Amino acid sequence: MGNRLTQIATRTGDDGTTGLGDGQRVSKSSLRIAAMGDVDELNSHLGVLLAEPLPTSVRDLLVVVQHELFNLGGELCMPGYALLKDEAVLHLDQALADFNADLPRLQEFILPAGTRSAALAHVARTVARRSERAVVTLSEAETVRATPRHYLNRLSDLLFVLARVLNRANLDGLGGDDVYWKSERLARSEADAS
What we know:
Structural class: mainly alpha
Strand order of the largest sheet: 1-2
Radius of gyration: 19 Å
Distance between the termini: 65 Å
Number of strands: 2
Order of helices and strands: EEHHHHHH
Helix content: 55-70%
């Protein structure tokens, strides 16, 4: 593994390149750097979400996810290294099943709204999707293990479910349920039920 950072402003990136963990210098516009940046942004959004009041089970899970995302970013930073364990994907699968088990079935599409924490989870979900797309794009040009892609796919699903959980937790008093899209189909269905 490369050296730990001891100096932040090195000025070595002034020429438009940046260093990877294996010592290579690449353009800051490279697909690998784009994927790393998206994963870093996702982790930062989770940090903002963690600054909110959250149920303990959600908080504990997101702290683990932040560490796993750091491993994923490290793996992207060091081509050929495998830092994100396959078990991390299984951990997300289990969390997805556990949190989804108590939620009611969706009647329609939901809006990324409700409580502040739920809205922040939705923002993180969209960044997870973008991160996944960036990793897919990178894997079309360079060798990348499937585990990072699988992890990001599962994480975006989990963040959707967590947004629903957080609306029901209603820790800021502004939620309580999913915010449904007002579609014509749902309006007809509600009219027929009356």
